[in-house]
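Researcher: Let's try something more involved. This one mixes different molecule types, so please make sure each is placed in the same coordinate frame as the others.
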Amino acid sequence: MRICDDRYSRERARMELALRFLRHEARTQTIRAWTGLSDDRIRKLYRSYMSHVRRELPRHRGKSPHQVAYFTRSLRVQEESALLASMLSLLGVLPAAHPTGALAEALPLASVRRGELLCQAFEAFRLLLPAAQISFEHAVFLAGALARGDQLRLGDCGGCGSLMVTERFPLRLARCVHCASPQQARSHA
Ligand SMILES: [Zn+2]
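Model: All components are placed in one shared frame. Result:
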């Protein structure tokens, strides 16, 4: 009986996570990676969800975001990235950092438990910044990139020490939006 109960609750957790991902307009391949559900089950879940909400939920097809440059290209997105990365870090979506500052050797990031935390982090981020540009798919990508640490990392602003997302090997000292020179701020405005 216990085994059946466990299997049932695991299954239920996967379905609930898939629904939460659907609400955030995640792509099928993302939902599959984090829940382990088949494409067929995700499609069925999507159809039954749609018949309940009666609003058109956009489905994004094709590839997920894969550009790390997205997170550093404008001051606005830099500021959003810093806030989102803080949420991901606080809620334990990212593996714990070593004392050296390097993130732990990434276990596969995608799991149901971590997916739930990822949703919590994104939902908190959207509560704080309802007009944020960064989509859920970008948040998933950011979590993966920060966990791998190969192209993006969590760093400190060279001016005030506040948390920010920087390139792995920045060409110049990273500065947050508030410490960036007024001239630079103007050129990005
Ligand atoms: Zn700063």
